[in-house]
Design goal:
By secondary structure, the protein is α+β, with helices and mostly antiparallel strands. It folds into 2 domains: 10-446, no CATH class; 456-548, no CATH class. The chain is built from 19 helices and 14 strands. Strands 1, 2, 3, 4, 5, 6, 7, 8, 9, 10, 11, 12, 13 and 14 form a 14-stranded mixed β-sheet that branches. A hairpin with a 7-residue loop joins strand 4 and strand 5 (124-136).
């Protein structure tokens, strides 16, 4: 059990938002509906309900928060977050205002989470404030948002939760058969306190069987419950919408911690808190790790950190896959849920985090599609080549839509929001992934262009050979037309016989020229090479097959 936090460090308010990106299996060709429309039909009779408009659906008390969130972002970002302008003079009759690219579903049957972070700790109950599924148009992605909160918790317990909660499957088991690195037990509770689903990290046989049979671990039961009617791609359950995992078992997350006197935290405590997602609570601090040495410059955003009694004293710890906002619980503005940092954490900063991970998940999805297309390519099979060209063109088209609809380097004029967005992208390597994917698509395009030119060149060669050698038939029919064989007054059957014989002979010459087009092309090149004497050209003609080999 970790002991580097003393008893004075209490988290007066804790809030954690899990953001789990999932890749949906592509829909069948010709399917007119998108993934979210199919899910809307499947969700009938389930706890999932679609939010037609999240702004319109807010209460009057939250309209002010939503308005501030709306005005934080640039107009081109609002366009895919909230849709285009609805003004009567903005669009013509043929150009209707576009809807938002986001489609959100929510469920409210889960009211609480009861969790035992690790063996030896008591169970804790957290409020479940929000569970959403977030679909994006023009992508095969969906994000699960799960927001929990609690009050008056020891910082040690919060650290355990930050490290352990939000894992899709265990990474192994200890000698007692318990999953390691994950929470000991997690239970979703209903409105009346009943248990809706329980984690099964200790079901070693389930995860081993899935890995052996499908080359991918299964997902834990409590996460599977939340996603239904979405079905894991390798599951034996029947489902119209199935998903893959985009990344590994650890889900991206952001957390808000209102702590008593955060100025009293030492550098090691800040380091452990900032690296809580990846550094085991019992593991010694790796002091020579580059991330530890450059922690403040790489992962800390201290715009609102004054380290003075007057304040403000709130600090962002951004590790790319995680973002923790830590501040003083005694500062009114920091804990204000309507206008303060807590409100901004749940709206402005979460949205920026969502955009950054939309970029990363989309780029990884595109890369996976390219790898799969290359894996299935058999250059010796014309059908495989045709399917490969279709898949690459579809991927390139989707990448263009993603680039022009979603990809931006500047999302807000507010310095804190924009700085966090750039920090997220930097620590997630989004720009590097984008340039790498763009280079891969360029290589694919060049390959397809060169392959097309090769096939066109081959076709031109064949046509040239056919044209040259069918001159024989042309001359022959020309002689026939000159009445070399005068059958104009012969019976119709005789004239048809001559026509059929001539057509068959011409077709035979044509087919022979097509089949032997390469050899005939080589023959034409040898005959036309005036730089060689005639006897050498004859020798090359007689040895054509041997020279070719």
């Amino acid at each position: 059990m970790n002991s580097y936090y003393d008893e004075q460090h209490m988290v007066r308010h804790f809030r954690q938002i899990i953001l789990w990106p999932l890749q949906l299996v592509p829909l069948p060709p010709g399917e007119p509906r998108s993934h979210w429309q199919i899910f809307d039909n499947l969700s009938a009779g389930t706890p999932w309900k679609r939010l037609d408009n999240e702004i319109d659906g807010e209460s009057d008390a939250n309209q002010d928060i939503r308005y501030k969130e709306f005005t934080v972002f640039h107009p081109y970002v609002r366009r895919f977050l909230y849709g285009e302008n609805y003004g009567p003079w903005t669009h013509g009759p043929q150009d209707l205002p576009g809807e938002a690219a986001i489609n959100i579903f929510c469920r409210k049957d889960v009211s609480a989470l009861r969790v035992v972070p690790r063996v030896g700790l008591p169970s804790f109950i957290f409020r479940v404030d929000k569970i959403n599924l977030i679909f994006f148009d023009d992508t095969s992605l969906v994000f699960l948002r799960c927001e929990i909160s609690g009050d008056n918790l020891p910082l040690t317990t919060v650290h355990e939760l930050l490290y352990r909660f939000g894992r899709a499957y265990p990474t192994g088991w200890n000698e007692d058969g318990l999953g390691i690195h994950n929470v000991s037990t997690a239970e979703w509770l209903g409105q009346a306190g009943e248990i809706l689903a329980t984690s099964d990290f200790s079901d070693r046989h389930k995860f081993l069987r899935s890995t052996k049979n499908n080359r991918v671990p299964a997902t834990a039961a409590h996460w599977t419950f939340l996603l239904e009617p979405l079905v894991f791609s390798v599951s034996e359950k029947v489902g119209q919408l199935r998903f893959h995992l985009v990344e590994n078992h650890h889900m991206p997350k952001i957390a808000y911690l209102a702590i008593d006197n955060p100025r009293s935290l030492t550098r090691e405590q800040w380091l452990r808190l900032g690296m809580a997602d990846s550094l085991h609570p019992d593991e010694p601090l790796p002091k020579h790790d580059p991330e530890v040495i450059n922690f403040e410059s790489r992962f800390c955003f201290d715009r609102y950190w004054s380290d003075t009694e007057k304040g403000p004293n709130c600090r962002f710890l951004c590790h790319g896959r995680t973002m923790f906002l830590v501040g003083d619980a005694r500062e009114t503005y920091f804990v204000d849920q309507q206008r303060g940092m807590l409100a901004q954490f749940r709206h402005h900063y979460f949205t920026v985090f969502l955009i950054a991970h939309l970029y990363r998940a989309s780029l990884l999805n595109f890369s996976e599609q390219l790898v799969d297309a290359i894996h299935d390519l058999d250059v010796r099979n014309s059908q495989s080549n045709r399917i490969f060209r279709q898949r690459i063109h579809m991927c390139f088209e989707a990448f263009l839509r993603f680039t022009h609809r979603y990809w931006f380097h500047e999302v807000s004029e507010r310095n804190d929001v924009q700085s966090l967005f750039l920090l997220f992208g930097k620590n997630l390597n989004n720009d590097s992934l984008y340039m790498e994917l763009k280079g891969e698509l360029r290589d694919m395009s060049q390959y397809l262009d060169s392959d097309l030119q090769r096939r066109q060149s081959k076709t031109v060669t064949q046509l040239t050979v056919v044209t040259a050698f069918t001159l024989i038939g042309t001359l022959t029919t020309g002689f026939l037309g000159m009445n070399l064989i005068d059958e104009a007054h012969s019976p119709l059957i005789v004239r048809w016989l001559y026509f059929i014989v001539t057509a068959l002979a011409s077709a035979a010459v044509l087919m022979f020229a097509l089949v032997q087009s390469q050899r005939l092309w080589d023959l034409m090149e040898i005959v036309s090479d005036v730089q060689k004497p005639w006897f050498l050209r004859l020798r090359l003609i007689f040895n054509l097959d041997r020279n070719k080999n």
